[in-house]
Amino acid sequence: AAGVIQSPRHLIKEKRETATLKCYPIPRHDTVYWYQQGPGQDPQFLISFYEKMQSDKGSIPDRFSAQQFSDYHSELNMSSLELGDSALYFCASSLASPLAGGPYEQYFGPGTRLTVT
Amino acid sequence: GQQLNQSPQSMFIQEGEDVSMNCTSSSIFNTWLWYKQDPGEGPVLLIALYKAGELTSNGRLTAQFGITRKDSFLNISASIPSDVGIYFCAGHSTSGSRLTFGEGTQLTVNP
Question: Which of A13, A56, B24, B59 is the most exposed place for a label (fewest CB within 10 A)?
């Protein structure tokens, strides 16, 4: 079965640079979620989109922005990178947003490991 | 914000033993999910629970949604070496679409 695809898998950036992470949800899934996981930590919710509209917002820095496109893929844009942004970034997708009464099962991609030097 | 307290933080067991871990919260959750994560990989969904009191199995895994909707447990029977990994509980409330994760349980299985 097709899974969530994330690219790139690894990314090395310097401080103050920008980065763009891409997520391709499971086919027919219309909701995407972004999570950040620091070393030894649990995933922390950043932001989610349902039908190209932002559906929920967590602890996402103002330096980060995201959007969902018409083909349902999503991109997380990160600017003015800081050392503390080094982490694993996961995208997850679900069939329908809980806000629309859909299922709550979120399926995660393999992640993008971002290293800021 | 909402927090999930997961215990134990780590477990070291022998192959063939049964394992139990649990999550508790001060808040009510409408959905409980259990994930397994291998190093450097994304969490893999193991079991989803939707109703208070629900008991669900997936092979050697059994999970229950607590009656109070504030807790859940996961049991693994007859553990095998490939069960090694970090197990996370996650809860979903009515506010927003986010999942709140527990701190994780690191499971080590000795052959």
Answer: B59
